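stage 2 :: seqdesign
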């Protein structure tokens, strides 16, 4: 199936100091790279989850895709068209087909606008003046399971779950092909999280929408994602089908994340993997494999040379960056919460 969104070697930088200060101090590289050569694709109707610790670059990718942050280099192709180099005006027709759900469900809604105004704002921005605002607001509220009279409310009159549903409704306003959901269940009760996830799954099934979901919650990933990418310090260290990554992780960082995932079974035998040290600063990246400072399997080559991306010999769509990936023959032990040995 043809990719709806294809990102290749995307790099995003943030300035460390201002240009004037850089000249005065002689700083050669007044930038840090928050996203370092990331590549991935999303097919129509598919859900891709991006997982990683805070500061790994997940939200930066999302903001770059919708034009809130400029890419330093790389390619962003949407439905075959390169949009990464387009101006804001030139990108506008493509942004109608992409929608963003921001992390804070209430904070992302203007407190001065009613729900009706928030839901119909995309029509005003894109010059769709022929739409009946009241009818559109009622239609969108119905799609996300909220009564039509919610159109008169303000954001402070909504619960977290209701605000998230309004965010979903606003994202659906222009019938997008892709929704980018940044921590869509953050700050919500577990029961409300389930409602939001079921809502997204239902809408995806009915409308054929592709979803890029950014989250820390691995239980969400397992519930909703077709494929998963694991990020560390601005790079993907593992990418593949969600079921396979949960069943047979190849990268030690993925293994550690999965071991830390809460298990609702009170009788389960858990072997948590405690990573050594802190996440390195992007201002002072480790040499070689950037995970080697926290990896229990690291050897000398890991400290000196950065590994290339390797595909799983059994499943080429499962890729990882590791010199000593976990052995496939031993990974069934993970299901029983026993610690697998490093691969050779």
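stage 2 :: out
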């Amino acid at each position: 199936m043809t990719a709806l969104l294809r990102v290749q070697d995307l790099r995003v930088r943030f300035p460390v100091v201002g240009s004037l200060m850089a000249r005065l101090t002689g700083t050669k590289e007044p930038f840090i790279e928050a996203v370092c050569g990331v590549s991935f694709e999303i097919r129509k109707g598919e859900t891709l989850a991006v997982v990683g610790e805070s500061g790994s670059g997940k939200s930066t990718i999302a903001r770059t895709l919708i034009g809130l942050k400029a890419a330093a280099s790389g390619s962003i192709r949407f439905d075959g068209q390169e949009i990464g180099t387009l101006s804001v005006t030139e990108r506008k027709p493509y942004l109608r087909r992409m929608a963003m759900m921001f992390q804070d469900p209430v904070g992302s809604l203007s407190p001065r606008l009613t729900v009706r105004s928030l839901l119909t704002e995309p029509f005003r921005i894109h010059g769709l003046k022929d739409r009946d605002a009241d009818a559109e607001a009622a239609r969108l509220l119905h799609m996300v399971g909220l009564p039509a009279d919610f159109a008169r409310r303000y954001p402070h009159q909504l619960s977290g779950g209701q605000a998230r549903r309004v965010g979903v409704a606003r994202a659906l306003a222009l019938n997008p092909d892709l929704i980018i959901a940044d921590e869509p269940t953050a700050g919500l009760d577990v029961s409300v999280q389930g409602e939001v996830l079921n809502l997204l799954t239902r809408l995806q099934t009915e409308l054929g929408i592709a979803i890029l979901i950014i989250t820390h919650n691995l239980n969400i990933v397992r519930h909703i994602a077709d494929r998963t990418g694991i990020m560390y310090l601005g790079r993907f260290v593992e990418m593949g089908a969600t079921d396979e990554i949960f069943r047979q992780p190849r990268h030690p960082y993925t293994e550690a994340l999965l071991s830390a995932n809460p298990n609702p079974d009170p009788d389960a035998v858990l072997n948590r993997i405690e990573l050594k040290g802190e996440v390195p600063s992007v201002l002072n990246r480790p040499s070689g494999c950037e995970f080697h400072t926290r990896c229990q399997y690291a050897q000398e080559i890991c400290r000196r040379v950065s590994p290339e991306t390797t595909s799983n010999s059994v499943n080429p769509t499962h890729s990882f960056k590791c010199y000593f990936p976990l052995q496939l023959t031993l990974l069934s032990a993970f299901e029983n919460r026993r610690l697998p040995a490093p691969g050779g």
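stage 3 :: structure notes
- The chain has a mean pLDDT of 87.
- The longest strand covers residues 3-15.
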